[in-house]
Amino acid sequence: MVTLRPLTLDDAPAVQRICCGASVRYAHGYDFTPEQARATIGRIINLTPATGWGFGIDAAGDLVGLIKARRRTPATAAVSYILRDDTWGNGYATAAVRQLTPILFAAGVNVIEAKHHPDNPASGRVLANAGFIRIGSADFADSTGAVVAYTMYELRRRERPRTATCWSPHSAATPDSSGSWPTTRTNRWGHPPTGE
Ligand SMILES: CC(C)(COP(=O)(O)OP(=O)(O)OC[C@H]1O[C@@H](n2cnc3c(N)ncnc32)[C@H](O)[C@@H]1OP(=O)(O)O)[C@@H](O)C(=O)NCCC(=O)NCCS
Questions:
Q1: Which residue minimizes the CA distance to atom 41 of ligand 1?
Q2: Domain that holds residue 175
């Protein structure tokens, strides 16, 4: 299985190998130079929770990919990922997305957005398997400059179950002299609601 870990500049050769060939076709569209690999690592290292998150995807000590999330607004973030082409099909991207999403929700993000190129259905499978919902499509320029309809996804933070506002047969409440039930909010055990 994979773990997410911080990057260092020593990862530059591995990042250059990740960001090349088939892996960049639906991303930025060109093979990274060593300088571009270092610059990307530098940008990821400089992310803070106010701006985003970025990790290396590590499989048994092998850096096999990158995963990032950009904070678009205080409550929304956009996730993206890239895996080295010789590691595809092992579930690594799905596992990485599943590990990143709780980190974002814990940081106050309510909605995580993602998109993929229409000719890249594997990325859609990654998102669906990680619980994302397809919400439609939107036009973006791809790496060739062509404007195409990207498939859009989102994952929303689950609401905590809310305490019911109701009378319970187990409640200590009783009708008053006029026959009206008290309006005090109680949970299903008849206790005052907490934690809301
Ligand atoms: C898309 C990408 C991240 C997938 O990484 P991965 O580690 O191989 O992903 P996983 O193994 O976790 O899952 C791949 C899923 O896609 C499916 N898949 C693979 N090729 C497919 C294809 N041509 N058509 C449809 N589904 C495909 C796999 O069967 C699997 O789904 P399943 O588990 O339901 O069977 C990887 O191919 C990649 O880095 N591509 C280049 C960069 C990119 O496209 N990033 C996404 C843009 S944000």
A1: 23
A2: 161-196
